[in-house]
Amino acid sequence: FYVVRFFHEGRDGRVKLVFTQGKKSSLAIIKQFFEESNYERERLLWEELYGIPPIYNEISKYIVLPFCFHAIQAEDNIVRYNFDLSFWTRENPATPGSANFIMEEQQQYLLNLDPTNFNPEDIARLAVESFTAKGYVHEDLEWRHVALMPKFDSDSIISLEPVLLDLTSAKKVENPATAEEYMNKKLEMLLA
To answer: pTM score, two decimals?
Structure first.
């Protein structure tokens, strides 16, 4: 992996945007947790909620997650998804190129994505609906945790699925109706 960008350090760990180099380069997220018990929990939740079993590296203590376009709340309070990867330039001089260069095979699809076609409020509602339908609540619902996950067919992105990130904040509840009620209140606060 080559580190393209260091994202924030949160309460649970450190997040990095990386790419693999080989015949086909791809973007991914590496998450390193402060507490070792969170690795297995996050891995199991990704598999249960999204059908994706992340890779866990026991030696280096990190988990590899799918790359997602997350919501960005600008200073003007406008929320949007940034599909223009060119702003993520390399932070490590040893890393060749930028994310835009790395994703050249996906670039045509990305160029056709108009951020104005993706209403962040609708995406948040869909992500929350999917989450609560499986009996989960997210205790840290912030815009940075509302994302669009690319779905692939061979090498091409065919769709974007609304998801919630930072699954260490996810909790299973007994009653899906309780989950829905709780998350609708959180959603109201997010959209206010």
So the answer is: 0.82
